[in-house]
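Severity: low
Component: inverse-folding endpoint
Summary: output formatting inconsistent between runs
Steps to reproduce: submit the following structure tokens with default settings.
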């Protein structure tokens, strides 16, 4: 006969199971709220109109982050959405349809040329110094004797034409590696991402863009440092060329 003795019908394993299930439900609830701090509310795929924020499961409580080295504070979510207009149009009228650039492909901001609105200050190291600077600003960093020093070598683009000459190397003082090549195009000096370059004994090949496109590549406003936003734009500019530099890159091979 059941006398309703609660303690007598519950053992330690059952308590542990109930506690685990409760904790797991709370964890899922917390994670689903935390992953909505940026990029929400979502936008309608066709119209671009922001969707509703949803209920308590879809709305995170504001949290304030203190940025290092006196960069202030930032809170998310903060209810603001920075307007960002891409210079492209849909190929077809359905959600998820690909976009085609309008006008200058290097300014479209789509595909491999996409970029984020990052901070307008340089990435910094543990000591508060700009991480990425010209090699001359960091005497303790130099090119390994067994490697080819690209300074002074000509740079050739995707079309095989000469784009300029490497004049300097921009290095990451925190990780001791080359991040950008400074290329003198004759009219101005630009930065080219090192991962997109192939350094040979007598030349540097950067087949991301054509030679004529180098002259319009971004360059830091401050000649001694590069901001996170400028890094984003520089990589996006050269990344654009991998798809849009030449017509034969636009469509699949089969």
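Observed output (run 2 of 3):
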């Amino acid at each position: 006969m059941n006398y309703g003795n609660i303690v007598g019908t519950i053992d330690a394993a059952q308590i542990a199971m109930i506690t685990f299930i409760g904790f797991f439900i709370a964890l899922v609830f917390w994670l689903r709220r935390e992953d909505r701090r940026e990029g929400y509310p979502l936008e309608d795929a066709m119209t671009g109109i922001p969707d509703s924020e949803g209920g308590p499961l879809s709305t995170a409580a504001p949290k304030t982050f203190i940025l290092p080295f006196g960069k202030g504070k930032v809170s998310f979510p903060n209810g603001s959405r920075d307007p960002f207009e891409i210079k492209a149009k849909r190929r077809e009228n359905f959600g998820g349809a690909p976009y085609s650039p309008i006008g200058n492909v290097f300014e479209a901001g789509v595909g491999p040329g996409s970029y984020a609105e990052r901070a307008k200050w340089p990435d910094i190291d543990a000591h508060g110094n700009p991480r990425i600077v010209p090699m001359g600003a960091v005497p303790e960093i130099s090119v390994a004797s067994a490697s080819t020093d690209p300074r002074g070598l000509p740079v050739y683009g995707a079309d095989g034409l000469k784009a300029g000459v490497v004049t300097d190397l921009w290095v990451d003082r925190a990780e001791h590696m080359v991040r950008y090549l400074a290329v003198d195009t004759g009219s101005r000096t630009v930065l080219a991402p090192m991962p997109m370059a192939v350094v040979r004994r007598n030349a540097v090949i950067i087949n991301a863009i054509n030679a004529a496109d180098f002259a319009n590549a971004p360059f830091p406003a401050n000649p001694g440092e590069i901001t996170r936003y400028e890094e984003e734009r520089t990589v996006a500019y050269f990344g654009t060329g991998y798809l849009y530099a030449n017509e034969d890159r636009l469509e699949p091979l089969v």
